[in-house]
Specification:
By secondary structure, the chain is of the alpha+beta class. It has two domains: 221 residues, UDP-n-acetylglucosamine1-carboxyvinyl-transferase, Chain (Alpha-beta prism); 215 residues, UDP-n-acetylglucosamine1-carboxyvinyl-transferase, Chain. α1 runs parallel beside α3. The protein is globular and about 60 Å long. The protein binds shikimate-3-phosphate. Shikimate-3-phosphate (S3P) binds next to α6. Monomer.
Length: 451
């Protein structure tokens, strides 16, 4: 459905030191949710700091197609006039989510709870990703898969329930997307919809549902898990949402500052939600010089300025239970591990195989191409750091994956020879200003065709 855009090759070369103070764009997870809850609320939701990346823009268009009035007022400043829970209309045309797993999966939850029908589609990466994990609970709630590609993949047409049923659902995978889809479907079901998660995943949906007026209770469940219960059929009222800076985007300049010697970089207002902070925990264990300054609250989330200084890192063992809090950060952690001294073992990475690409395979192949010692053992990625990275290999295959592209461009900043990536175009899905922001800090990153 999304036409494949032309590849944008890019490369990065050794940069002496990075200096400066920057703010990365708004959090992608929160941006999707702000638009979607704006659609489901009565009244006008104002959003400041919305990430204007392709993924989020696809969600904005989908909200419009389902009946919301969506207006861009200025940079990052948006207004959504909602239709209220129960007030959605079937979209006239298929919803094209491009590369966006979160947007498509959360919106499947929204559609499943309403007596409407919608077709979901996306690019080659999204078409390859598993949707059964979302469709299984939604079918239990009364939704019907009218048609789908083999293996429950996109393009697929979903017919929502005439009268959605509340469920108690234990997700077999630790996934905030699955949890959120079930909760969003449960908004239009009577009674309590409960999600049991064995490992706590990011809680932005729960927090934002509460801010919009829903009743959501969260209790500990099992050793690391949670029981999340939503009271159905709330009247959601529009609120103002301030989107904090995305820790998953901040991860790139952060690790860049750690691997380019002599660097000193401040990243402003980065969200420090504990369910998103696994990378910070791990880098601190590796001996990174990162200070959290000016800790405060913004828009219902904890944020802080991160002062990062380059220096020596040591290999560590990253436990599997940390994965949900840093699931998107393993590619860039692998870069930090390559520059560290000693072995870093990242355990329990099976979920990385079903991200925008098979990230376990893509990271491993990229490390080898850069001359880094690395191996996959079962679901673990092992990187043996020698404090230096040769670089200079063939262009890294990015497989339509923004985080693979950004990670290996950061790899090039400390490498002995430049590191090239085959396509940086997908960076626009989550961090459109990556190139200019990194160059502002002094990074030698060159993207062709003005990406
Ligand atoms: C997200 C959840 C995670 C993450 C994704 C964003 C979200 O996916 O990888 O980038 O906003 O809920 P899973 O729920 O599949 O782990």
């Amino acid at each position: 459905m999304s036409s494949a855009s032309a590849a944008v090759p890019a490369h990065a070369s050794r940069s002496p030191s990075l200096k400066g103070r920057v703010r990365v764009p708004g959090d992608k997870s929160i941006s999707h949710r702000a638009l979607i809850l704006g659609l489901l609320a009565v009244g006008e939701t104002r959003i400041e700091g919305l990430l204007e990346g392709d993924d989020v823009l696809a969600t904005a268009r989908a909200c419009e197609a389902l009946g919301a009035g969506v207006v861009r007022l200025g940079e990052g400043s948006w207004r959504v006039r909602g239709v209220g829970v129960g007030g959605l209309a079937s979209p006239a045309a298929p919803l094209d989510f491009g590369n966006a797993g979160t947007g498509s999966r959360l919106m499947m939850g929204v559609v499943a709870g309403h007596p409407i029908e919608a077709t979901f589609d996306g690019d080659a990466s999204l078409r390859s990703r598993p949707m059964r994990r979302i469709l299984d609970p939604l079918e239990r709630m009364g939704a019907t898969v009218v048609s789908c590609a083999e293996g429950g993949r996109l393009p697929l047409t979903l017919r929502g329930a005439e009268r959605a049923l509340p469920v108690e659902y234990e997700s077999p995978v630790p996934s905030a997307q699955v949890k959120s889809a079930v909760l969003l479907a449960g908004l239009n079901a009577p009674g309590q919809t409960v999600v049991l998660e064995r490992e706590a995943t990011r809680d932005h949906t729960e927090r934002m549902l509460r801010a919009f007026g829903a009743e959501v209770s969260v209790e500990p469940w099992g050793a690391h898990g949670r029981r999340v219960a939503l009271s159905g059929e709330p009247e959601l009222s529009a609120v103002d949402v301030i989107v904090p800076a995305d820790p998953s985007s901040a991860a790139f300049p952060l690790v860049a500052a750690l691997v380019a010697p002599g660097s000193e970089v401040t990243l402003e207002g980065v969200m420090t939600n504990p369910l998103r902070s696994g990378l910070l925990t791990t880098l601190l264990e590796m001996g990174a010089d990162i200070r959290l300054e000016n800790a405060r609250e913004e828009g219902g989330e904890e944020v802080a300025d991160l002062l990062v200084r380059g220096g020596r890192l040591s290999g560590v063992d990253v436990p599997p239970e940390r994965a949900p809090s840093m699931i998107d950060e393993y590619p860039i952690l692998a870069v930090a591990a390559a520059y560290a001294t000693g072995e870093t073992r990242m355990r329990g990475l099976h979920e990385l195989r079903v991200k925008e690409s098979d990230r376990l395979a893509a990271v491993h192949a990229g490390l080898i191409a850069c001359g880094v010692e690395a191996r996959i053992e079962g679901d673990d990625l092992v990187v043996v750091g020698h404090g230096r990275v040769p670089g200079g290999g063939p262009a890294i295959a990015t497989h339509l994956d923004h985080r693979i592209a950004m990670s290996f461009l950061v790899m090039g900043l400390g490498a002995e020879r430049p590191v090239a990536v085959d396509d940086a175009a997908m960076i626009a899905t989550s961090f459109p200003a990556f190139g200019p922001l990194m160059r502002e800090l002094g990074a030698e990153i060159h993207l062709e065709a003005g990406a």
